[in-house]
Each structure stands twice: as C-alpha cells, then as structure tokens.
Design brief:
Blueprint lengths: L22 E9 L2 E9 L34
Antiparallel strand pairs: 1-2
Length: 76
C-alpha cells in the first residue's frame, strides 16, 4: 500500500530563484517613413566572491602610425 502524501510547509529561507526572464524595454523611433527600435535589457548575475574588489590593470593605448583622418582644423 502506498504511503499517503506528506505536506511540507515552505519557509522563506528554503526557496531559491532558478531562472528568470530578462526585463526588456523597447524604444521605437520614427524619422519620416523610417522606423527602428532600440531594445534595452537588464541581466542580474551572481558573481564569485572578491570579484571587482581590486583595481584593474592599466593597459596603455599604443598609437599606430597609419593613415590620418581627413578632418582638418582651420586657423583663422
């Protein structure tokens, strides 16, 4: 004979979030007859401990000697 089901109360300390949809917002812009949409979303992630506690390493930007841009400033 099978055992009868047992009812177990759920307390607030025992539940956890397994998955959640991303919160999204959409901005629709119309210019003349053209329309385009910009979607914004937020994602919340759990990070390991000590993440971001130390300053990041500084990486120098190296300027490449290549083609100059076509923008010139005039001296008046």
């Amino acid at each position: 004979m099978p055992k009868p089901p047992k009812v177990v109360p759920i307390t607030t300390d025992e539940h956890r979030l397994i998955a959640m949809d991303q919160k999204t917002h959409r901005l629709i812009v119309a210019i003349g007859s053209m329309r385009f949409a910009i979607d914004y979303f937020t994602r919340i992630s759990t990070l390991p401990s000590n993440t971001g506690d130390q300053p990041a390493a500084v990486i120098p930007i190296k300027k490449k000697g290549g083609k100059r841009s076509g923008i010139r400033l005039r001296k008046w």
